[in-house]
Amino acid sequence: MANVKNLKKDINFVLADIIEAVYLFEVSTSGNPTPETNAIIDEAIASFDSLITKVNQKHVENKKVHFKQINVELEQTANQLIAKINEL
Questions:
Q1: Are 63 and 12 in contact (CB under 8 A)?
Q2: CA 15, CA 19: separation in Å to the nearest integer?
Q3: Buried b / exposed e across 31-49, counting CB within 10 Å, b at 16+?
Q4: How far, in whole angstroms, is CA 84 from its chain's centroid?
Q5: pTM for the full model?
Q6: Would you say 19 and 44 are in contact if contact means Cβ atoms under 8 Å apart?
Q7: Res 2 pLDDT > 60
Q8: DSSP string, 31-45
Q9: Tens digits of per-residue pLDDT, 8-63?
Q10: d(CA 3, CA 15)
């Protein structure tokens, strides 16, 4: 069970750090949210919901492969969101 707990923490921390980076960008530039920053935050929240739903699935054939796939998906999503922040 510790692995599931750590995976949930990783999802929470990674996506929260991305949202925090967007807020820091907003404060350091205009001080106000823009449609682009709001879209990145919305995408991060949607990704969080999707990943947590996948973690909480009960009937999975191979749990080890399932959780590895979620971890890979988290990494890909985080990299995409970071690239979008860097483009701002």
A1: no
A2: 6
A3: eeeeeebeebbebbeebbe
A4: 13
A5: 0.87
A6: yes
A7: no
A8: SS--HHHHHHHHHHH
A9: 999 999 999 999 999 999 899 888 888 899 999 999 999 999 999 999 998 889 88
A10: 18
Structural tokens at position 61? 């054939």
Diameter over CA atoms, the chain: 49
Instruction: Report yes or no: 70 and 55 within 8 Å, Cβ to Cβ.
Output: yes
The reported pLDDT for the residue numbered 24 is 92
63-87 and 35-55 are packed helices; what angle lies between their axes, rounded to 10 degrees?
170
CB neighbourhood size of 10 (10 A) = 16
Task: Give the amino acid at 69.
Answer: Q
Complete DSSP assignment for the chain:
-HHHHHHHHHHHHHHHHHHHHHHHHHHHTTSS--HHHHHHHHHHHHHHHHHHHHHT-S--S-HHHHHHHHHHHHHHHHHHHHHHHHH-
